[in-house]
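Repro:
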Amino acid sequence: MYINDLSPVPGSTHVDKRKGRGHATGNGKTAGRGHKGQKARSGGGTRIGFEGGQMPLARRIPKRGFNNIFAKPLESVNVSVLDKFSDGEVVDAQALLQKGILSKCTYGVKILGNGEITKKLTVKAAAFSETAKQKIEAAGGKAEVV
């Protein structure tokens, strides 16, 4: 077998349609653009979201509030989950990822106060809720902001 004997798998290629090459081709004269109108002209057509002069949907819908594009969203973990760690352990984002509690942690962790904690842990996180800090310290642990 030689390289010149090879051919593409049947159905994997097709011949391009050549527009505007005579009426016998089925794509001659108007080249599949129909007769006249904005879309038949060269450079014709409208931008994305244009609704023929009607007020576009993106402008009709009311807008509320503020969306900070520079916000760095924190992953949230409840205090009850921290009981999976053994007594005296240091809990940080890396430890949470290794235990499989978090699947990703791009910007940091915030510890929330839902549930109870019985073990004495040193918890290092980007933020703590007030109740979470109280519960960790009540169990004899430390809450450190990293």
